[in-house]
Amino acid sequence: MRLTKTLFNHVCSTARLILYKRDASPPSNAVRMVGAILGLQFDYVEPDLIKGEHKSPEFKKLNPMSTIPVLKDGNLTVAESHAIILYLLNKYGAQHKERLYPSDPATRAIVDQCLYFDAGVLFRQILEVSRPSFAGKSKGPTKKNISDIEEGYAIIEAYLESGTYVAADHLTVADISLGSTTAALQGIHALDANKFPKTKAWLERLSAESYFKEINTPGATLLAKMLRHFWKQSNKE
After folding, report:
1. Which GO terms describe its biological process (predicted)?
2. 60 lies in which domain range?
3. Closest listed residue to residue 135, CA positions, set 25, 227, 203, 223
4. 188 occurs within a structural domain
């Protein structure tokens, strides 16, 4: 669905779980993957970010940050993917909640640590590349972009030092969020398996999951395609 004023008003007043998202958005895909695990169904609205629909007055009433994803559940509106994921787990997680977001304080602290790393560090590397690229002001990732991405990979490698998942001995929402971002980064600067063998194996393990294949892989592929298109256009100038 495209975001228009008429559609916006209609969707906001009739549907239950409404997710404003884009397929090429790693945070959107992280929310969608958690939703798939929980068996939730969303109605989707897809604001055109290139045209700036996320900066419209209507959208800013939903989310003053002008970012996606945004979730509407009845009268509640929640922005920021990690907040949305935890809300969905708290309200709809049922038997999945304990495994995906363990209640043990020590384990949960490590999960939270990874989520904050994703929000504040790793995903920022995508923004640092994609924003100027989509504005036609970049011909590709800079040396600094690549260095910063590699630093992010090194942190994930450290998180995986003693296990196969980043925060526990099993899959948690930390893996889903970081996995979505890391998969998207492959279209900017691919993992070197010799430098980051644990991270490479972890990403391959996540990529084998059905929800990852159905939701995240197509989204990461689309983002890479979009970036290459804008880089090609900029290099022609």
Report:
1. glutathione metabolic process
2. 17-96
3. 227
4. yes
Residue 236 is predicted with a pLDDT of 78
Q: Are residues 132 and 73 in the same domain?
A: no
Confirm if 178 and 169 have CB atoms less than 8 A apart. Answer: no
Residue type, 150: E
Residue 115 has pLDDT above 90, yes or no: yes
Q: Please report whether residue 103 resides in a domain.
A: yes
The structural domain count of the chain equals 2
Name the residue type at position 104: D
Cα–Cα distance, 224 to 29 (Å, whole number): 15
209 falls within a domain: yes
pLDDT digits (tens, 9 = 90+) for 166-189: 999 999 999 999 999 999 999 999
Return the pLDDT at 237. 64
Rounded Cα distance between 106 and 32, Å, is 27
Amino acid at 43: D
CATH number at residue 62: 3.40.30.10
Instruction: State if pTM tops 0.85.
Output: yes
Residue 100, helix vs strand vs coil: helix
H or E, element range at 193:
none
DSSP letter, residue 163: S
**87-100, pLDDT tens digit by residue?**
999 999 999 999 99
Joined tokens for residue 213: 């294949």
- Residue 5's pLDDT is what? 39
